[in-house]
Design goal:
The complex is a heterodimer of chains A (334) and B (191). Chain A has a domain of 102 residues: 2-Layer Sandwich (Enolase-like, domain 1), CATH 3.30.390.50. Helix content of chain A is 29%, strand content 20%. The longest helix of chain A has 19 residues. With 191 residues, chain B is of the alpha+beta class. Chain B is elongated and about 55 Å long. Chain B has 2 domains: 95 residues, Ubiquitin-like (UB roll) (Roll), CATH 3.10.20.30; 80 residues, [2Fe-2S]-binding domain (DNA polymerase, domain 1). The chains are: A alpha+beta (334), B alpha+beta (191).
């Protein structure tokens, strides 16, 4: 691990002012916020992240989960994943989020990891993690070792010829299906970005993963009010039964009227270079009866643009079955 | 440039000026060391540490509390599990200087020979280990699990113990040990 200066921010202004001096808020950032540290310290030990300054944001007043007047929910940036997963409002109104969080990592890690940290969680691509290998995300222009290498766990949606790294987060997939909004405070003031616009596709610049700029501090995430009578579910498929990243996962939120789906939101995990929302699947579901044929059509639509690599072709079928099964389960529940 | 331990931004003082000999646990001077005060098992420690020092390395190398083990050093095996303010965490992914003011509990604070925690007694009674390397981490997770929202079945216990790897494969007896304590606690509550 490279040496760094450890500083603590006691208010948001201090954190923003400190980080505004950074060269970038993306890969290679010389100044990093640190909260739970589960991802950052791991990558610092591997010299994938080499900040010269860490700004401890654990003491900022962003540790609350609050019901909003409109019926939605506000989730502070440093709320721990375990606290969020077990919060009574989350369990009642946003079950998909609770299930996604509890399907990720281990109890110890969930006690440390935060909302904002999980949003910024970085890929597990082994070539990104290994500084001896080429990686366009870690070192732009060096090439992608994964495309011709071990790519079984990597993405099939949203890839480019420069990067096929998958986004590893479960929480983000649920947030995509719940249409969350990310609230950011930065040197130029406050702004909010939808979860769909927050993460970037790799394209020609896989080192740029989010819209964040130097000094941008995530303060909280808001969820819209749950649509009345909605049911939601997170289904995760993986090599081990626990403490493993998704090969494919589905976050589904549906509203039913009789046997008909009147509203649907679909997120996919383990298959995308960013948390994947599928408006294509949603279009096939909305207004239709909850039948296996409809679920299958939705699954086909969601994976229509999939580009499998040499070792992960199985993910196309796995993700389809994952989504179709999740839809079956969520529409069955009484 | 190295500033002092977790200085509040805008109030940085140089490490050198803060390096007055108030340390109880004397360590050789390390260039760039910062003053850190930790509270471990109810005892306060004033230390000078490299800011890169993880809580695990600090416990083992500076405080000589070697019950917490280093397995993978990347948060994947759970051998380093300790409690921070009563919650279990992977100490290998904690920077020690960020845990000033917190109540840290290690296996040494959970029980001692002649004064074992019920989970420790159950691990002995159920032969819940073979080589023992992962055991301290298993016990720290198991003790934390007792106050977590875990369902009654073995499957739930296995899920909640998935952050602790046992290479010998003592899993079955670990689950039995934990369940025996939970069931006797429930009996006491019912009685």
């Amino acid at each position: 691990m490279k040496i760094f200066e450890l500083t603590r921010a006691d208010n948001p202004g201090q954190a923003i002012a400190a980080a505004a001096k950074a060269n970038t808020a993306q890969q290679g950032a010389d100044i990093r916020f640190i909260a739970g540290g589960t991802n950052l310290v791991d990558y610092m030990k591997l010299n994938v992240e080499t900040p010269r300054q860490l700004v401890d944001v654990n003491h900022l007043p962003f540790d609350k989960i609050e019901a909003l007047p409109d019926g939605g929910l506000s989730i502070g940036a440093v709320v721990r994943n375990s606290d969020l997963a077990y919060h009574p409002i989350v369990r009642k109104n946003y079950a998909v989020l609770s299930e996604a969080l509890l399907s990720g990592a281990s109890p110890q890690l969930r006690n440390m990891a935060t909302t904002a940290g999980n949003l910024l969680q970085r890929t597990r691509c082994m070539y990104f993690r290994d500084t001896a290998m080429p990686c366009n995300k870690r070192e732009p222009g060096s090439g992608c070792a994964a495309i011709t290498g071990v790519n079984r766990g990597l993405a099939i949606l949203g890839t480019s010829e420069h990067c096929i790294a998958s986004n590893p987060s479960d929480m983000n997939v649920a947030l995509a299906a719940l249409e969350a909004t990310i609230h950011i405070s930065g040197p130029k003031g406050e702004r909010s970005v939808t979860i769909g616009d927050f993460h970037l596709l790799p394209g020609n610049t896989p080192n740029r993963e989010t819209v964040l700029e130097p000094g941008d501090l995530i303060t909280h995430v808001t969820l819209p009010p749950p649509s009345p009578g909605n049911r939601s579910l997170y289904l995760k498929l993986r090599d081990r039964a626990s403490f493993e990243f998704a090969l494919a996962s589905a976050a589904v939120v549906v509203t039913m009227d009789g046997g008909k789906i009147t509203r649907s939101r679909v997120g996919l995990g383990g298959v995308g270079t960013k948390p994947w929302r599928s408006p294509e699947a949603e279009a096939e579901l909305t207004g239709q009866s909850a039948t296996q044929a409809v679920f299958q059509k939705a699954a086909e639509a969601a994976l229509r643009d999939a580009k499998p690599q040499s070792q992960n072709g199985f993910k196309v079928e796995l993700a389809k079955r994952c989504l179709a099964h999740a839809l079956k389960l969520v529409t069955q529940t009484a | 440039m190295l500033a002092s331990a977790s200085p509040v931004l805008g109030e940085r003082s140089r490490a050198e000026s803060a390096a007055t000999p108030k340390t109880k646990q004397a360590m050789p001077a390390v260039e760039g060391a910062i003053p850190v005060t930790l509270r471990v098992n109810g005892k306060k420690y004033d230390l000078q540490i490299d800011p890169r020092t993880t809580l695990l390395d600090c416990l083992r190398e500076h405080l000589h509390l070697t019950g917490s083990k280093k397995g993978c050093d990347h948060g994947q095996c759970g051998a380093c599990t300790v409690h921070v303010n009563g919650r279990r965490m992977n100490s290998c992914l904690c920077l020690a200087a960020m845990y000033q003011g917190d109540e840290i509990t290690t296996i040494e604070g959970v029980g001692q020979p002649g004064n074992l925690h019920p989970i420790q007694e159950a691990f002995v009674a159920h032969d819940a280990y073979q080589c023992g390397y992962c055991t301290c981490g298993q016990i720290m997770s198991a003790v934390a699990l007792l106050s977590e929202p875990v369902g009654p079945g073995d499957a739930e216990v296995k899920e909640f113990m998935s952050g602790n790897i046992c290479r010998c494969g003592a899993y079955q007896n670990i689950v039995e040990a934990i369940q025996s304590v939970r069931q006797s606690t429930n009996r006491q509550k019912a009685g």
